[in-house]
């Protein structure tokens, strides 16, 4: 995962010609490298020394940007959260029908399962390694999951306001199951099963119950 870039001891933030503050290149490389390693190998498995070697930065540089490995893990999760929020905001920006947001979120999940190197949900994987609810890492996971649930709830509220809460919980459970099975079984089968389940939920709104 090394990118061949030289090591640097630049400060945590640098100033652009216009005077705006931006993250340093070293910090971005540390975060990018750690994110790839954490996702592909597991958070506990990857040590600081491996991150330093892959990112080609010194230990002093690491601790100038992150006070600890745990702080880096939290930033890894926050960055993944921000990326997902932005992707779904962009994908649902031009919704045309009440149920289009539900299908858009479902298709986004399906797209994640098709990603090369997919090995499950980064947040569920990290939760298994950091189960203590008061741990800042676990809190970052809960923050993302609460947002995702609320986003799904908002989507279902456009379709069936009276049953949106139950439908959102159902959707999230389907999504979690697909994420777990997607790196164990045939992803095409998992995707088809997941999308079939979502369509079944939408069809059920014409009958009684979800």
Write a concise synopsis of the structure shown.
By secondary structure, the chain is an all-alpha fold. The chain is built from nine helices and two strands.
Largest sheet: 2 strands, antiparallel
SSE arrangement, N to C: EEHHHHHHHHH
Rounded radius of gyration (Å): 20 Å
Strand order of the largest sheet: 1-2
CATH H-tier superfamily of the largest domain: Tetracycline Repressor, domain 2
The 3D shape can be described as elongated
Task: Determine the N-to-C terminus distance.
Answer: 45 Å
What name does CATH use for the topology of the largest domain? Answer: Tetracycline Repressor, domain 2
Give the low-confidence spans. Answer: 1-20
The count of helical stretches stands at 9
Content-based structural category: mainly alpha
Count of individual beta strands: 2
- Beta-strand residue percentage: under 5%
Could you describe the 3D structure shown?
- With 210 residues, this protein is mainly alpha-helical.
- It has nine helices and two strands, in the order E-E-H-H-H-H-H-H-H-H-H.
- The chain folds into two domains: 66 residues, Arc Repressor Mutant, subunit A (Orthogonal Bundle); 144 residues, Tetracycline Repressor, domain 2, CATH 1.10.357.
- Strands 1-2 form a two-stranded antiparallel sheet.
- Helix 4 runs parallel beside helix 7 and helix 7 packs across helix 8.
- The radius of gyration is 20 Å and the shape is elongated.
């Amino acid at each position: 995962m090394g990118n061949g870039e030289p090591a640097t001891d630049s400060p945590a933030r640098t100033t652009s010609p216009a005077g705006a503050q931006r993250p340093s290149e070293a910090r971005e490389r540390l975060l990018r490298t750690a994110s790839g390693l954490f996702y592909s190998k597991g958070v506990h498995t990857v040590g600081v020394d491996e991150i330093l070697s892959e990112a080609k930065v010194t230990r002093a540089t690491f601790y100038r940007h992150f006070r600890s490995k745990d702080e880096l893990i939290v930033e890894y999760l926050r960055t993944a959260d921000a990326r997902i929020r932005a992707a779904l905001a962009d994908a649902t920006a031009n919704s045309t029908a009440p149920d289009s947001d539900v299908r858009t979120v479902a298709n986004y999940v399906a797209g994640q399962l098709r990603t090369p190197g997919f090995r499950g949900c980064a947040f569920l994987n990290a939760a298994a390694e950091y189960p203590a609810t008061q741990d800042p890492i676990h809190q970052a996971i809960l923050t993302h999951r609460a947002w995702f649930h609320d986003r799904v709830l908002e989507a279902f509220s456009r379709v069936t306001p009276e049953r949106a809460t139950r439908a959102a919980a159902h959707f999230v459970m389907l999504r979690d199951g697909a994420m777990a099975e997607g790196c164990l079984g045939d992803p095409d089968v998992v995707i088809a099963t997941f999308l079939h389940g979502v369509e079944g939920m939408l069809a059920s709104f014409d009958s009684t119950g979800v």
